[in-house]
Amino acid sequence: MKLFLALLALAYVAPSTEDSSNWCYEVQAREPNSQCLGPEQWTGNCKGENQSPINIVIAKSKVNSSLTPFTFVGYNQKKRWIIENNHNTVTIPLNGGMCILGGNLPGRYEAIKLHLHWSQERNRGSEHTIEGKRYDMEMHILHKKIVSGDKVQDSNDKYAVLAFMIQVSEKMNEGFQPLIEALPSISKPNSNTALKELRLEDMLPSSEKMYYYFRYQGSLTTPNCDETVIWTVFREPIKIHKDQFLEFSKNLYYDQDQKLTMKDNVRPLQKLGKRQVFRSHASGRLMSLPLPTLLVPTLTCLVASFLQ
Ligand SMILES: *[C@@H]1O[C@H](CO)[C@@H](O)[C@H](O)[C@H]1NC(C)=O
Ligand SMILES: [Zn+2]
């Protein structure tokens, strides 16, 4: 009987090597009895040459005058968005009516979803680092290229992710508050709730502060790590209060039993390799640019095509 049970146990833990749907972060993989695949074992394209996140070294980045400010369309909509704990982050699906253009993107990109990365401690929760500095959190807004008709889409510019560093400060960030207040309602994975009214624009730095950003070609930071992302990493961090920051690790769990706090949902840094990082203008110098960052309130993304 004992032998039989032992065999049964063996059969049960035998790793299903090719199943990358069972991926997890390092912090989860380190748990005793964990059976998920940590970052070193991620499959798909995760071992590619153009992976994300990276460390950004300003002195090695190249100023590029094509990197003009963005135009944000529909970011001012006030809506009761749905927020979900999807067992690796909290995510807000952004269905419809919001897009970005400009910033040397090859076309219009529709906002698909927003999510965050964080830790329980300071200086651990961002995925990208700038000059070796890790920030407290990082927010990603994933956009997908709008293509007309039946064009096949399988190129490295399929997605544009806007990445914002988040830094703890003394002040409450009112723009983030609807999201923060919803966290206790989505403690468990696969749960969701409706936010109080929230406007994405209110969560972003002011428009002049979004002039300065880095640009490089990379990947999604979760499996299958497709190398289809034009990355924009803004220099100016978003600031939130320490108490707001702590609400994430206080309320959210990776597992149904609420034993494993959701935190450190951060992929390790990847090699830059042959890639060049660009930046929108000289560091430290305030430039008057011919075009402001536009926050376009009206219309739909379809109509916005005339802005191009
Ligand atoms: C400017 O950046 C783009 C990427 O956004 C790149 O394709 C282009 O070669 C760069 N131009 C110069 C002069 O470096
Ligand atoms: Zn992300």
Topology (SSEs and partners):
Blueprint: H1 2-13, H2 26-29, E1 55-56, E2 62-63, E3 70-73, E4 78-79, E5 82-85, E6 90-93, E7 99-102, E8 109-118, E9 129-130, E10 133-134, E11 137-145, E12 159-169, H3 177-182, E13 191-194, E14 198-199, E15 213-218, E16 229-241, H4 242-251, E17 278-279, E18 294-296
Parallel strand pairs: 1-9, 2-17, 3-18, 12-16
Antiparallel strand pairs: 3-7, 4-14, 5-6, 5-13, 6-8, 7-8, 8-11, 9-10, 11-12, 15-16, 15-17
The structure holds 2-acetamido-2-deoxy-beta-D-glucopyranose and zinc ion.
Descriptive notes:
The protein is mainly beta. The protein has a single domain, classed as Alpha carbonic anhydrase (Carbonic Anhydrase II). The protein is built from 4 helices and 18 strands. The chain has helices spanning about 1-15, 25-30, 175-180, 240-250, and strands spanning about 55, 60-65, 70-75, 80, 80-85, 90-95, 100, 110-120, 130, 135, 135-145, 160-170, 190-195, 200, 215-220, 230-240, 280, 295. The strands form 3 sheets. Strands 2, 3, 5, 6, 7, 8, 11, 12, 13, 15, 16, 17 and 18 form a 13-stranded mixed β-sheet that branches. A 3-stranded mixed β-sheet has the order 1-9-10, with no helix packed on it. The model is unreliable at about 5-20 (pLDDT under 50). 2-acetamido-2-deoxy-beta-D-glucopyranose binds near residues 62, 64, 66, 215 and 278.
